[in-house]
Amino acid sequence: MFTPDNKDKILTGMIWSAAVLTMGFLIWILFYIVSNGIAYVDWSFITDDYTRTGDEEGIWPMIMATLYMVLLSISIAAPIGIMTAIYLTEYAKPGSKLVKLIRFCTEALAGIPSIVYGLFGMTFFVVALGLGFSILSGALTLAILILPVIIRTTEEAIISVPLSYREASYGLGASRLYTIWRVILPAAMPGIVTSLILSIGRIVGESAPVFLTAGMVARIPDSVFDSGRTLTVHLYMLTTELYTQHDWNMAFATATVLVLLVLAINLITKFITNKFSKATY
């Protein structure tokens, strides 16, 4: 017979077990990838160019292509996502048909597989608009992909701002626009920054949409209209050309750099969020 104390102990044990299991999977994946690849990561591997048939096997062009993709995608998606969230929370009438339509579209975008985004980007941006396989085509596709993340997270951040902040600003005679710009957005900035950093992590981790829109040329793009190979696409290409143990080593080394980059993004997220939280409150 289960007493309330016994039930509480069982549930507590299940919760701790789930937490330990989750942490165990993370540690296992990190250890397996890093332990197999860290020995082959050196300065030349990071800074050299890449030639599949030559002696150079560096990933510097892929790192630069990834940075271009991140900066351009965020530059396109962030203003649209943040302004949409502001409209939904501060201007739109709650429960209106337009609000329901926007929320439905956001939820639908969030549920579409990334490969479908890639197919759309290839047929529309690459072919229909004539942008070709380029950083711009990939960035436009990824901007659409990360919009739901930015809109949802920013919306929740704005909603979490206490109503008293708005009332105090309006009571002092401030306009709605001034209140949003000088009161609400600064208070919601930790959540907004989190949404942007999470979006960056999503961009860095995507391969299928980038492969179908930005191409796979392993050199530093001269402009956003040039093709480029990101780190995830490079890792995919390496894993399809695994003929020798050396190819495996290069694949694990690339995966190690990618994992460390994602971890760095998460640490930066925590650091910036804490800074904004202290500055705001």
Question: Would you kindly provide a written description of the structure presented here, covering whatever features stand out?
Answer:
- It comes from Ferrimonas pelagia.
- α1 (4-37) packs across α11 and α10 runs antiparallel to α11.
- The longest helix is centred in the C-terminal third of the chain and has 36 residues, at 245-280.
- The protein has two domains: 4-40; 62-280, MetI-like (MetI-like fold).
- By secondary structure, the chain is mainly alpha-helical.
- The chain is globular, with a radius of gyration of 23 Å.
- The chain has helices spanning 4-37, 43-47, 60-91, 97-111, 114-128, 135-159, 163-171, 176-205, 208-213, 231-239, 245-280.
- The mean pLDDT is 86.
Provide a concise account of the structure shown.
This protein has 281 residues and is mainly α.
Number of beta-strand segments = 0
**CATH class membership of the largest domain:** Mainly Alpha
N-to-C terminal Cα separation, in Å?
50 Å
Which radius of gyration do the C-alpha atoms yield?
23 Å
* CATH architecture tag of the largest domain: Orthogonal Bundle
CATH topology of the largest domain: MetI-like fold
SSE string, helices as H and strands as E: HHHHHHHHHHH
Integer tally of domains: 2
Number of helices: 11
What's the pLDDT, averaged over the residues?
86
Strand content range:
under 5%
CATH homologous superfamily of the largest domain - what is it? Answer: MetI-like
Shape: globular
Q: How is the biggest beta sheet arranged?
A: none
Low-confidence stretches: none
The helix fraction, in percent, is over 70%
Structural class: mainly alpha
Protein name: Phosphate transport system permease protein PstA
Keywords: Cell membrane, Membrane, Transmembrane, Transmembrane helix, Transport
Transmembrane segments: 12-34, 59-89, 101-120, 126-151, 183-204, 248-268
Subcellular location: Cell inner membrane; Cell membrane
